[in-house]
Amino acid sequence: MNYDKDDDEADRIYQEIDEKMDKRRRARREAREKKEREDYERNNPKIQLQFADLKRSLGSVTEEEWAALPEVGDMTGKAKRAREARLSNQRAYAVPDSVISAASQVGELDTSISTESSDGTMTNFASIGAAQKSALQVRLDSAASSTNGAQTAVSGTSTSVDPRGYITALEKSQAQGEIPVEDINRARTLLESAVKTNVHNGPGYVALCRLEEVAGKIGTAKKVIQKGCEMCPRSTAVWEEAIRINRDNIHNAKIIAATGIKQNPKAIKLWLAAIELEKTANDRKKVTRQALDHNPQSVELWKMLINDTEDIEAVKMLFAKAVDTVKLSEELWISYARVSDPDEAQQILNAARKAIPTSWAVWVQACRLQEQLGKENLCDKIMERAVKALIKENAMLKREDWIKQAEICEEEGAIVTAGSIIKSTVGWKLDEDDERRDTWLQDAKDSIARSRYETARAILEHTISVFPQSTKVWHEAADLEKRHGSIDTLLDVLERAVDTCPQSESLWLMYAREMWQADRPNDARNVIARSFQSLPGNENLYTRAVDFEVDANQYDQARAFLRLARDTAATDRIFMKSAVLERQLGNLDAALDLVNEGLQTWPGSWKLHAVKGQIYESMSKLKEAQEAFSIGTRANPKAPILFILLARIQEKQGAIVKARSTLDRGRQQNPKSAQILCEAVRLERRANNMNAAQQLMAVALQQCPQSGILWAEKIMYLETRTQRKPRALEAIKKVENDPILFVVVARIFWGERKLDKAGTWFTRAVNLDPDFGDGWVWYYKFLLQHGTEEKQAEVMNRTVMAEPKHGEIWQSVRKDPKNAKKGVEEILKIAVTKAE
């Protein structure tokens, strides 16, 4: 059948359809396969996983229990057979007389020589030597035949030589030091055999020449390569080697180059070697022109001739002739445009587009030219035309390749061109069903990781133009400006964001916070006022306004905001915020009144119960605090923190049994709560009941096998130092990507003085979850002991940028009323002192 262009086009279209359909089904197929694999592993667990809990429980077995275990009896036939075999080996046998006689003659020296050889006992040394020679011959032939390379028979033997590989080996050996004489002689024999067997083996002559050069015999090397030139006149490698080794005598080298060029006039490498032998620019140009007469299509020769020319007008003339001769060279066209005036450059690039309609590089250069001329508004139009033309010629690059070209333009300073490339090509071959938003966001993250921020900014701008109502995209754009832009650009992005998405609470809060941090409090208050108009009655906006006023020490204004919020948008959080503010200001009675007022409306709010108990605790009224927490556990039994706070109060009063009972009730109400389980283990550990702690931990890990906090507690406090690392490995296999476990592994390496590994794991922890404050605390504590001041400052700045909110140590310091007005830096320094 005839296969024409229509068939090719049909095949291409069908292939694109198949790829697109496969791409659309890929996510569902991978999810289904993952689910099936998980179901299979759950229904068919490995033996080691089935007995993992039993292995862990062996740690609680005492030495007395181990000693009381009975011995296993020998009940198998295999053991019986082994026992019979041992008994049979113990049997005694009579020693023959010949053995005794031979043993008696050990060490004696017999100097007599027997003249009789008819009985076959005469040693024939000649036959032994012949046999050794034959065996050696067989071993040599076998070794030679087993090697790779070209095999040539010489004197009945097989020799294998790889000349190119041997040249590389010689260069490596020469770089490392002096080569042993034995190796040189052995290699010389092999290479001589190779060139004698095949006299037209050019690489063999080159290898032998290099060998003689390494051996210090320059004269012999020149003779060898001269013979190679005579025997292999069409081998450019031989002529190149001859020119190189004769460079000590330029005249001879030129003669050799001329002779080689006569034999190989189309060999570009020989022409380039001949050009390098010339000293002056005029002589080099003469040789280059002669080379171009024989090789007019060589781009490399045209470049060398142009580089040796200094007059700009002459350079332009040479470029004109070069592009006329080699019309398909993008490099020559683009270089010609760069050395020309703007008007001429436009004409040159237009001619280049006609000569090479499939070249995307010419279009990019045309776009960059307009940017250099200040006509930035034309860049987008040029790239749009470029995409249409390349699609028509079926020469469109992949989307990923276009992003790389945009990053190259950004690196070279063509920022507008990079943006135009992204705008025109980032959506290539992406349909509406292909989750374009997530794809573009990932592209932006990849560009940020490569430090190409302008390209990432262009990708996000295009994504915003397509998905203007997506708050996720606006947040990514704002985060980029916050980390790698200026405060003005950040505020500009946020202003556009709140105008486009006025119902987005997170954008309003972010805008107000950044405005406040930019030391523009009045503008921040205006932002909050505008947000009230778009989102009336939003409690988060009220709380943010209160935070601003508290930071500015405007407590009356903060109270006014809270009073207005309680009247217009009353929630339990608003009452809690009001009570916390009064508690921070020392008005404990007023705080209690506000909490009680809130509990009348929201009796099931565990936060209000928790604040009430903490207020009583700060007033040293432990009995009232215990009562408040106890009422809270009955009002909201699904709040684990209330049971924990109640148990701690009871423990502080010395009622360990009551605390244990409280945590047991909490476990009954919240059987899967890792917090309560961990607190129960810690209670036993603080009471020095290590066996009970071990048993509780075994039960806890059965109920919550994916809890990082439980594994961390077990590894650091319930395992011996030698067992921490294997237990941490087991935990990481079961709980993937948990920052708590990463910090535990880093602390283990820290304790073993493996500081590099410890720093690596700390970095993984903070990169995995920047919101986990304990990771920053331990990392900073580690750097205070083993890090530089620059690294400490870097981690401090990253912590301030991340603004972490979670972590046991971090929250205990951050939520302390004494630290209410302290910033992230001060909180971090205080938390470091409490990390143990």
From TrEMBL:
Keywords from the UniProt entry: mRNA processing, mRNA splicing, Nucleus, Repeat
Signal sequence range: none
Region (Disordered): 1-45
Domain PRP1 splicing factor N-terminal: 2-78
Superkingdom assignment: Eukaryota
One term under GO cellular component: U4/U6 x U5 tri-snRNP complex
Biological process terms in GO annotation: spliceosomal tri-snRNP complex assembly
Compositionally biased region (Acidic residues): 1-10
Residue ranges with Basic and acidic residues bias: 11-22, 30-44
Subunit relationships: Associated with the spliceosome.
Protein's recorded name: TPR-like protein
Native source organism of the sequence: Lojkania enalia
Highest classification ranks of the organism: Eukaryota, Fungi, Dikarya, Ascomycota, Pezizomycotina
